[in-house]
Design goal:
Elements lengths: L2 H9 L9 H7 L2 H15 L18 H14 L9 H9 L3 H13 L1 H14 L12 H31 L2 H31 L3 H99 L5 H33 L6 H41 L12 H59 L4 H132 L3 H10 L4 H58 L20
GO molecular function: tubulin binding
Organism: Chytriomyces confervae
InterPro entries: IFT81 (IPR029600), IFT81_CH (IPR041146), IFT81_N_sf (IPR043016)
Length: 690
């Protein structure tokens, strides 16, 4: 509890209470704290549709009424004391518990805006506590139903108003966005007009537009067909999944039939029926209700206005308080259970067993749901793996009889493979023979070429054979190069001719566009110069207007202050004049009454019993003076008799003590405890001597 916050909030308007932390903790009495709570509660209910009941002076109110009023207000604001319910809070308020009063004051001043909102809503949404005896009346039931409907309408209206208040602050941003959209619209329209002009200059533009339209339609139809194909493929996949599931169920049924017979199949189906019935009757409604509750919560969250940081903080505090309250209730329940367990509760064991069985049943249902989801997930994964392993021809993973067919086909292909492999080995052997033959021929060629070169050397024409082969190769290459050059030159000339023709065509087409572009550049330069000049004038004018606007705003502010001062002075003078007029009227009436001669005034004098106020006041002055004289004389008499009376009172006090001592002594003598040494007692008598 932060008493510094309480002190700061109380020092602010409208409370204006200068109380320090020490004063709040030690010096301020409990009734003053209760009065502060009432003042804060009245401020929170200020401006509501009904007058506040907290504008009271608790000195004129019964303590029980104060405790009930403050406790009811705390119940409306959902105040949760430290481990106390509302009745205990009222009792502590009645007992003037300082700690609880300070806790309530801190709670009220911690978040004033939230409490004001709660007070306002509680005026309309507070549930009317109607006794059950009156609820038997149809008229009362109808009225309660109408109140509930009106409260629901108020909730919707309040949410709508809050949404409008929160969205109302974004008016400037919306206007700015609308202005930007208008500017973008103008830009788009200008671009469209420019593009339209350019398109109109293209020859046969209508044909091109019609072709573009048809292309767009075809593309849309193609996209629609692609969507339909995708849907059909999804439908085929779903059908295949259902088919696979049905086949799996059929196999399981056949295996069950072969293993256990019809009785086993029937028992299994009955077990599945019981399980499905339990899931449909117990588990499924709970999950549906949880889902519906979650949907309702999400709808409520969506319909509510966006939360602020303070709302999150308040919710965190409420969650903490609720958690603490839950823990406290759990402890109470545990203690109560321990107390009850000490007694002779014969049904406790059965209740415990039933709770354990219910928990096991719920856990089994949850595990069954989890396993069902796991089976579905694995089925989808298997189907996806099958899709991945499909061949390019659209085949799928083979199972059962199809796999046997595949094995038989594979065996036939393996036989063919063995035949082909034997043929390949024969061809490889033949390839080795041919390769060896080629090597022998290359060796013979080398020996022959060496013999030929030796013969040429001997004949005086060395390397003749090699030179002739080289010349033949060079001539062949030169012919190929010349042919390639001719083709390349022809292609280059064709390309240049096509480029020149294209350039000429484009020049003829672009000539008007270039001319128009030159004109537009000239116009753009002129417009830019004009824009720069006007922008300069505009900036200068805006600077002058801004300075003048600032001056005018200051003058208007000064004039408004003068007007407010003059208005306040005007109202003050009007009131003063009115008071003076009333005083003057009283003076004139008094003068007329004093002079006399007016029958109406005389009748009024007879009715009130005196002639003028002057006579009445003079008479009262004389009476007060006489009373003062008599009181002064009485005071003198009292002062003169005061000292003798004090002495006489002291004398009487001493006499009383003496008499009391004598009475005590005589009681002792009479009881035999006061004998003297001679053996007899002396009886005395009390006498009063003045």
């Amino acid at each position: 509890m932060d008493l510094r916050l309480v002190s700061e909030r109380l020092s602010q308007p409208p409370f204006n209470k200068t109380l320090s932390v020490i004063q709040l903790h030690d010096e301020v009495p409990p009734y003053a704290l209760a009065q502060l709570i009432s003042d804060v509660a009245a401020y929170l209910e200020e401006g509501g549709p009904v007058p506040s009941i907290h504008k009271v002076d608790i000195r004129n109110e019964e303590p029980e009424a104060t405790a009930w009023r403050i406790g009811e207000f705390m119940r409306i604001l959902k105040f949760r004391g430290p481990g106390l319910d509302i009745n205990a809070i009222r009792l502590e308020i009645l007992n003037a518990d300082r700690a609880l009063l300070l806790e309530i004051l801190h709670f009220l001043l911690k978040d004033v805006a939230l409490h004001k909102k709660r007070c306002y809503l509680a005026t309309f949404l507070e549930i009317v506590d109607v006794p059950s005896d009156y609820m038997q009346d149809d008229l009362m039931l109808e009225l309660c139903e109408q109140v509930s409907q009106l409260q629901d309408q108020f909730k919707e209206t309040h949410k709508f108003v809050e949404g409008l208040r929160q969205t109302g602050g974004a008016t400037t941003s919306v206007k700015r966005e609308i202005q930007q959209m208008e500017e973008e619209k103008q830009q788009v329209l200008s671009k469209i007009s420019k593009i339209r002009k350019k398109v109109e200059q293209v020859p046969n533009h209508q044909v091109w537009l019609e072709a573009a339209k048809k292309l767009r339609i075809e593309q849309q139809q193609e996209a629609a067909l692609a969507d339909r194909i995708r849907e059909q493929r999804n439908a085929v996949q779903n059908a295949e999944k259902k088919y696979a599931a049905s086949q799996q169920q059929l196999k399981e049924a056949r295996s069950t039939l072969t293993s256990g017979g019809a009785e086993g199949l029937l028992a299994k189906m009955q077990e599945e029926c019981k399980m499905n019935k339990y899931l449909a009757s117990d588990n499924l409604p709970k999950s549906i209700e949880e889902t519906k509750q979650r949907i309702r919560d999400l709808k409520r969250v969506i319909s509510e206005p966006p939360l602020r940081e303070t709302d999150f903080e308040n919710m965190d505090e409420e969650i903490k308080e609720l958690n603490a309250e839950t823990a406290r209730l759990a402890e109470k329940k545990l203690l109560k259970a321990n107390d009850n367990s000490s007694g002779d509760d014969k049904l406790a064991l059965f209740r415990q067993q039933a709770a354990i069985i219910a928990r096991k049943k719920a856990g089994t249902a949850q595990r069954l749901n989890a396993l069902t989801e796991e089976v579905m997930r694995l089925s989808e994964e298997v189907e996806s793996r099958r899709e991945q392993h499909r061949g390019p021809g659209g085949g799928k993973v083979l199972t059962g009889d199809d796999f046997k067919k595949y094995v038989s086909e594979l065996r036939g292909k393996s036989n063919i493979y063995k035949i082909k492999r034997s043929e390949l080995s024969e061809m490889q052997a033949e390839f080795g023979i041919l390769q060896r033959t080629e090597q022998i021929l290359h060796a013979r060629e080398k020996s022959m070429s060496s013999n030929l070169s030796e013969l040429e050397r001997r004949s005086g024409i060395p390397n003749f054979h090699n030179d002739r082969e080289t010349l033949e190769k060079v001539s062949e290459r030169k012919g190929e190069v010349d042919q390639a050059k001719g083709k390349t030159l022809q292609e280059i000339s064709d390309i240049i001719a096509s480029l020149v023709s294209n350039i000429n065509n484009k020049k003829s087409v672009l000539a008007p566009v270039i001319n128009e572009l030159r004109k537009l550049r000239v116009v753009a330069s002129d417009l830019e110069a004009d824009y720069v000049e006007r922008k300069r004038h505009y900036d200068a004018m805006m600077v002058g207007l801004d300075s003048e606007a600032v001056k005018l705003e200051q003058e208007v502010k000064g004039y408004r202050q003068d007007i407010a001062i003059d208005q306040s002075r005007y109202h003050y003078l009007n009131m003063a004049i009115g008071l003076i007029d009333i005083s003057q009227e009283k003076v004139l009436h008094e003068m007329k009454s004093y002079i006399g001669g007016d029958e109406a005034i005389e009748a009024q004098q007879k009715a009130r019993g005196f002639k003028t106020y002057r006579d009445v006041y003079n008479k009262r002055i004389v009476e007060q003076e006489n009373m003062g004289k008599s009181l002064r004389e009485h005071q003198k008499e009292i002062k003169s008799k005061h000292e003798p009376n004090v002495k006489q009172l002291a004398y009487f006090t001493g006499i009383r003590k003496l008499l009391q001592l004598k009475v005590a002594h005589n009681h002792k003598v009479l009881s035999g405890g006061g004998l003297d040494t001679t053996g007899f007692s002396q009886i005395t008598q009390d006498r009063l001597v003045l």
